[in-house]
Queue: 3 jobs
Job 1
Amino acid sequence: MTPQPAPSVRRYDLDWIRVGAFALLILYHVGLVYGVYDWHVHSAHTFEWMREAVLVTNPWRLTLLFLVSGAALRFMTLRRTPREVARARFERLFPPLVFGALILVPIQSWIEARDKANWPGGLDGYLAWMGREFSWSGLADGVPVNHLWFVVYIAAYSAVTILLWRRPGLIERIGDGLERLLRGRRLLVVPILYLIAIRITLFPFFGLTNNLPVDWYNHFLSLGAFVFGFAVVGRESIWRGLEDYRWVAVGLAAVALPIMMLQVWHPGGRAFLGVPKAIVYGVDQWAVIAAILGFGSRHLRDRSSRVLTYLTQATFPLYLAHQTVLVVAVWVIRPAQLPAPLEAVSLIAVTFLGSLGLYEIVRRIDPIRPLWGLKPLDGRPWPLDLRAWREDGARYRRRRGLLAVGVAAPVLALAVVLIAAAAYPGFDNATQFLSELGGATAQAPIIFNAGVFAAGVMAGLAGIGFGLAVYALSGARIAGAVTAAVFVLAGAGLSLSTLYPWPDPRHMIINLGLGIQLAPVLLVWGLSRRRDLPRLKLFLVVTFVVMAALTLFTKHLVFPGTVNPSNVGWWERAYAIVLVCWVGVAAWVLERKLRDPDPDATAAAPTGALVE
């Protein structure tokens, strides 16, 4: 398909609406802390009237977000082909979803387990919870995503909508049909009738589950809103109608909301099979959405600002972070037994400011930006520019391929440890060494040994890439060779140690890798002529200092007894994380630098090696 011409004017009203809806979502979740509905954690204060108060936003907030998200996807299609749009959606949604499911959501689930099931606290309790959640039995029950269900649905609905868009003329025919159908007062009446119909016929049987395969009422509601936004965002007659009927919509919502609250409060609200309640619910649902869209189109369509630009970028990271920040805040603040108003204000402030603080941190760290739904600062694909790597004549192709292995090696190592620990019932992170995951007492030692063997081979290959990268960027032959040597030795020690599982004395061949502690300093030495890598150099120096400090502690040269048999496992975990993760970060930075080095910053780089 040939992409359509780009629009001449951006719809800033949709940006404002999206930002406002997500802000209301944070307030809504704070309200659930005080509500009577089942939620992850609750305050010591609960209020029955929250049952009715949540109706102020509950019927329409998420439906509005899906509608605006569909409209935003439509704007993406104006410059891209279907394949490009699908790739962009995947790059934007998949990394945050995986990151959130592995890191953000387990924190919430663990605190909820502590609150409701007296799960053990401390780092041991958290790791035990992680082992349970990501064990074979835990994975068989599904991976909890909590508030990230919205990301799952956006991804699924984007896929469905892109498939519809691939059918020539289908979306245009849908838009034409909606434009004819929604003329005049029917712009209010028809959507209300649709919402009432699905509320009466589907909701009693399926409810709202946020479970994608069986959430049929939600699909008719939210997917319908998503496709509606995609199809009509460019239909000016519909937007003019929303502007014209915005005050009528306000009047309908003002009448429907108190009636809906009364139906929830009064025991007779479910009379006549709940049909009257469904009717009022549908009226309120579309009336509020139509009013917001109408007023936004009339007053905010051309209203851009620096604040809007900032919040538009921050919204997705804030969404990812806010519920974890809120659950932690409740757990920390609740024991203080503050009065309910002061506690609520504190939770709102901590959630907003804590989420913004996280955003301010992650947006400045390029390697982790895509994990929070942000594009890399240099605009290249993440984590690696594979297309550029495959191009004929690509710069430093083989060296960049070796560095790509260096990016993957830490990910493999961490994954192997987590899986092996989950397959080792009763593994004690405080007192046991990681090598025991592949030892005689492990039930499935092959997981750890095979994974670590592969990680060792990858570390050696990555070391060769580091050495060649140093030579290419600065011409430092000796520093590059020494760097490669310590990595190759470390990789060999790591791989060979798995052939002699613990407690075989030959397992100690792993000590061949001790020299890798010097690798960060060697890289700084080799890249000393480069003036364009100050943050990487600082990162490497800090890494070396941390590893040196941990080494001193374990040898009891500082604060003797700090590391002892009761906590040596935690020392080893900290050391392993530092030792492994820095390799991936450094490899990622150098791979990108080799892709497009700054010629003004290159000093004494060897000639004739630009393409290999």
Note: The CA atoms of residues 185 and 587 lie 61 Å apart.
Job 2
Amino acid sequence: MEVRIRPARADEATALTDLVVRSKAHWGYDAEFLAACREELTIRADEIDDRRIVVAEDEALGMLGAASLEGTAPHGRLGLCFVEPHAIGRGVGRALYSHVMGTARALGFTRITIESDPHAEPFYRRMGARPCGDTPSGSVEGRELPLLDVLFATPGDGWTYAWTEGRRAIHLGNVAEFQSQFGPASTEAAHYSCLAAFISPHPAALILPREVPPDWIDLVGGVLGWGPVEVYDGLSRERAGDLSRAVLSRPALAERLKSLGLPLVPWGRTPAFAELTGEPLGPDALRYESKRASHELFTRLAPAHPGIRVPEQWRAATRRAAARLLRTRSRAGRATVVKTEHGAGGSGTWVIRNHGFRAASLPRGPLLLEEFVSGATEPRDLTFDGLVDVEGRVHEVGVAVMDVEGTAYRGATVGPGVVPPPLTGTVARFGRAVGERIAASGYRGWFDVDFVTGSDGRPAPTEINLRMTGPSVAFMVKARLDEIRGGDHLVRTVDHVPLGARLPGPELSAFLRETARRCGGIDAVLVPSIPTAAFEPAPRLGVVLAAHTRERLDAAEALVRTAAQDTGRMFLS
């Protein structure tokens, strides 16, 4: 069923009234009750435009539902939201609700009130509306109806405005270019560059080193209400670490991007990006990307933050020296984290638990050895995300729970209730203190501070990332969904979903559309984030999921993982 939303016409007033009454009757109300409600439910031809009534229809099935956005900004109400009984449960209500909320946001509404039928209240709660009391029925004396609110973020308020001044932005997926400043880029950097689509909540253009499926950005933008996004991909397929220079070598492209007059935001800052934008990169701006320098900063800040513990760290000039210390610690029953000075996504990090390892398996020095913070306290792996604006002011974005498999980052979850408030406060205060120090060193842009929680419940900072990160994607998608749909979303990134078969472009698109439809059936949202690995020898996919409850978020992840594994069946005869 393909649902289309359009403005209602005056000559449809009677048909719309009949639809609304049939929808109301679906809940088992008797004729006397419906007669009492008839006046309130009647739609008149001369009020259709003023009430902003829209119709949901299918080309084959005809009119399926109606909704209205009533009132004057900033406060309005959802006056109607009714679906033909035979279409209830098929996504029509969600489509109408999302359309009205998107319209409300675009017209400057900041609050929408819903006077709900008691039977419809669970639907509105699933969509993110929050109960705020009861209100008398306008039709039946003595009857109370649930009252709910949908709140939208105020334009110009919060970190999203500080990031791009509320404007659309040009996104540069220079993941490999950033990593190459500190050593060889990871093998995953080219695929990970797709996450640059989410560098801000609303891109205008996207620049990527390798090709992406032609309809991928339309799938993403359709969910997030982006509208047209210019995509320039395949610019440096063989040399992904030269993306900024690839733009510089194409004068027409560089001029086109300049003509848009929009912020150009990178995955990470580099000398080549500084050349592209004319914004110098200070000599100490990326100092704290070093795990050694970040540990020194943590140690200096810790005395003012008693809720934080800083694990001990030692430097070994060679891997032989590292092996000696590791064996001493392992014989004493102490696990140790081995780190190279730079790394991303868990690369360059190992946990040594016993003395049976081979010294030759370690990378050449120098190496950092760090006390392993033990404990099964949940949430275990946390991150604080923030940004430093052009004036050097620090803005808090939020605290996320990371999914870490061994030492490899796999995704993150953000949203209400994900991290207990006391722990959030401890992590955020320390994260802001870190932000003030990196701002003083000359850094401008996004940053995060990663933590692990020990058995005593205290978070231990482990590293600083002076760039966009996997969790930043979750915060961006949440900001956009909260903006266009209202409510307070839970969002989870899942960067590594194994596929049961290699999917070429058309099959991948069909799989994504069908899986997104199925997620919608449980009131969850699916956004495909990493599509380029679907035809690798070990095929996989990255997705972002969103819902208004933890149960639905978990159910959506289970659905996606099962569907991904089942892809192999489509090729069985």
Note: The CA atoms of residues 486 and 509 lie 28 Å apart.
Job 3
Amino acid sequence: MNHRFLTIISTGALGLASMFATAQNPIVRDQFTADPTARVFNGKMYLYPSHDIPSPIESLKEWFCMADYHVFSSDNLVDWTDHGMIITQNNVPWVRPDSYSMWAPDCVYKNGEYFFYFPSAPKGERRGFQIGVARSTSPTGPFMPMREPIKGVNGIDPCVLIDTDGQSYIYWSGGGMMGAKLKDNMVELASDPVRIEGLPDGFKEGPFVFERKGKYYYTFPWVRKDTETLAYAMGDNPLGPFEFKGTIMEESPTGCWTNHHSIVEYNGQWYLFYHHNDYSPEFDKNRSARIDSLEFNADGTIRPVVPTLRGVGISDARRHIEIDRYSDISPKGVKIDFLNPDNKFDGWKSSFSKGGSWVRYNKVNFGEKPVKTVSARVKSPAGGTLNVLVDGPKGKKVASIKVPKCNDWRVVSADIVGDAPLGVHDLVVALQNGRVDVDWVGFDALPWTAGAMTTGRYRNMFAEAGYSQAEIDAKLAAIYDSVFHGPNKVYFEVGDSMAYISDIKNYCCPIKLEDGKKAWLER
């Protein structure tokens, strides 16, 4: 068997499956993502956040600093793809390129185009912020910015509502909470701006407006005391008047001054996207996007949302499950810390210090095939024992992991005892004895945390997906036979020392080489 060729086949077949993200909050783990506006296009969720960065200029060292926008997408709210930068302050004709003021954006689809709305500081003698538009035929771009901002709109935080009758509205803040109709071209006002009435006193910004069952929800960050809540009002018309109803999310318990959000329905469930300074607890101008589920009461009012670390979605048992993004935690004996305080994007760890302490992580999918082993990345100066359970701290124990003395991180494994769980369960990790730090837990073959250049071995992503070695061998043998011997083979031998590979079975003709032997050239 041509093992080198099989390596090429298996690597090519699985190459696109090697990019995975996580299902916990925050949802983007390699950069700051504030002011997340979520939109559903063609059955997929797209996220348009602003992009906090450490300021390269002295005047913004202690303030918000944003130079560009990225767009992300997901079809399960678990695995997020970064499609890269779509707009930068350097390629918008009317934006002052050293302003670092690309604040909260929005994106909508109408008339075969995607319209990306964003605020920024203009060039020249114009003051304050204005709102511009970039256009594309794809939700991920490339976007072409208009040469001038929208006339008559001065402010920040644009939001666009396309009503059920097709009429579009734009909302913004800065100098008051404002709104206006848009022309059908989506880049000009069709009415004079109006001030949104019916809102409480106090600082307000970041409007996000949506319609549900004939009611219009005007939602916004609101400083009730010292930091921002998320609040809302309801009305019968897109531009109000609105009746204030209360808060969707209370002030941050850690003192993050801002919050900014969007609310969207996806596959029958409503979600709240918002931000928090998870990766920057000492500086709340660097924020990260989160998601939590949102529910409505029978009268249409919104139930308050309690922010979680766990977030949304179902986690695969055969992936790294970061239990520090827990659903619930014991009152004592567990502490969550950064893995590396010098690089907080490395994530967090759970530090167990008291026997009986536990962490619960909900909605883990064990699939239809029983798992055989559980692994954990751990560190323990004195050693200890971790118990792995399902369905609660007093649920069924599926494994005990003996953790040796180790001052450095290492992966330890244990066999599953008894009947392995199937389907979706809550996962619990509890400390039986000792003191143990845990980075992640997962079952069976898991994606590696380092590539072949570091480990000297190549990944088997079939095994990581839960297939047995016998199934993998059978699949690869079938592919090999099809390629080399089957009726649709693409490999053809010529003589005793030559061969060619046909692309799509095109007609091939021989060519003569200098030594008199023949080779084959595809037309």
Note: The chain has four helices and 34 strands.
